[in-house]
Write a structure and sequence with these properties.
The complex is a heterodimer of chains A (87) and B (175). Chain A is an alpha/beta fold. Chain A has a single domain, classed as Rossmann fold (3-Layer(aba) Sandwich), CATH 3.40.50. Chain A is built from four helices and four strands. Chain A has a four-stranded parallel sheet with strand order 2-1-3-4, sandwiched between helices. Chain A is globular and about 30 Å long. Chain B has two domains: 32 residues; 138 residues, 3-Layer(aba) Sandwich (Mannitol-specific EII, Chain A). A five-stranded mixed sheet of chain B has the order 1-4-5-3-2. The chains are: A alpha/beta (87), B alpha/beta (175).
Chain lengths: 87, 175
C-alpha cells in the first residue's frame, strides 16, 4: 500500500499531511508507505491513494490512484475516517 | 546479584529519563525563537488575499527570517498554483522554497479581523507564514504548527486571538 500526500511544492503542507497520516497509521497498526510529492509529479506517480487538498484533488481525478481531498490536513480524526473507509 | 541488577536497571532508567528531560528542555529552547512576538499581528484589515500574504511575509522579513524575494515567491506560488496553501478551514500557510530566500527558520502569524476570499471561493481568517531552511530542519516546526491546527479548540482560539500574547499562549503549550 502506497499513499502519496500532495501539495504545490511537495514541501510544506504535503509534509504536514504525511505526518498526520503516519501517526494515524501507527495508531491503527497499519503498515503503509507514505511519500510526499509536488503537484507536477503526482499525476504520474505510482500510488494506491492520493491525499491532498480540494483544489488539487479535483485536478488529479482520473489518476490511477484513488484521490481524496482532506479539509484539515492536521486533523487526525478526519484522516482516520478517510483511511478507515478505504482500508 | 539480583540487587545489583535492580540497581543497575534503576540507574539506567533514571539516566534515560534524565536524558529525555534534557532533550525535551533543549527542544523547548530550540523552538522558542521560531515565533517571535514581533512576527505576530492581530485584528488586521487587508485589501485582498495578496495584501494579506504580503503582510504575513513582511513579518518574516522584519524578524530576519527571510528576504523580500521570498515574500514575492510566496505570492507568485499562489498565483501559479492556486489557493492550495489553505491547510484547514480558514487557515492558510503561505510559504515557498528555502532557496527563495530563507535566512532562519521560523513562522509568522497574521490574524485578520474578518475572513477574506482567498484566490477563489475559499475564505481565510488566519495566515501562518512559514520559512523553512531545508527539508529536514523544519519537520519540528511543521509538527508544532500541526499540533495547534489539528486541535479544534486551540485552532478556534488562534483564529479569534485579539493580541500577540493570546497567539503566543496558544503556541506556548506546544513550543
Amino acid at each position: 500500500m502506497k499513499i502519496l500526500t500532495v501539495c504545490g511544492m511537495g514541501f510544506g503542507s504535503s509534509m504536514m499531511l504525511k505526518m498526520t497520516v503516519e501517526s494515524v497509521l501507527q495508531e491503527k497498526g497499519i503498515k503503509a508507505e507514505v511519500e510526499t510529492a509536488d503537484f507536477g509529479t503526482a499525476s504520474s506517480a505510482e500510488a494506491d491513494l492520493i491525499l491532498t487538498n480540494e483544489e488539487f484533488a479535483k485536478q488529479l481525478q482520473g489518476s490511477k490512484a484513488k484521490v481524496v481531498a482532506i479539509q484539515n490536513i492536521a486533523d487526525k480524526e478526519e484522516v482516520k475516517q478517510v483511511l478507515e473507509e478505504l482500508l | 546479584m539480583e540487587i545489583l541488577a535492580r540497581i543497575t536497571a534503576e540507574n539506567i532508567g533514571a539516566k534515560a529519563s534524565q536524558q529525555g528531560r534534557i532533550r525535551a528542555e533543549k527542544e523547548v529552547i530550540a523552538l522558542k525563537g521560531l515565533l517571535d512576538s514581533k512576527a505576530i499581528q492581530t485584528n488586521i484589515q487587508v485589501n485582498d488575499w495578496e495584501d494579506a500574504v504580503r503582510r504575513c511575509g513582511k513579518l518574516l522579513v522584519e524578524t530576519g527570517k527571510v528576504t523580500e524575494s521570498y515574500v514575492q515567491a510566496m505570492v507568485q506560488n499562489i498565483h501559479e498554483l492556486g489557493p492550495y496553501m489553505i491547510i484547514a478551514p480558514e487557515v492558510a500557510l503561505p510559504h515557498s522554497r528555502p532557496e527563495d530566500g530563507v535566512r532562519k527558520k521560523g513562522i509568522s502569524v497574521l490574524v485578520l479581523d474578518e475572513s477574506i476570499t482567498f484566490a477563489g471561493e475559499k475564505r481565510v481568517k488566519l495566515l501562518i507564514g512559514l520559512a523553512a531552511t531545508d527539508k529536514d530542519s523544519h519537520m519540528n516546526l511543521l509538527q508544532q504548527v500541526a499540533e495547534v491546527i489539528g486541535d479544534e479548540e486551540r485552532l478556534k482560539r488562534l483564529k479569534n486571538a485579539g493580541s500577540a500574547a493570546e497567539v503566543e499562549a496558544v503556541f506556548e503549550h506546544s513550543f
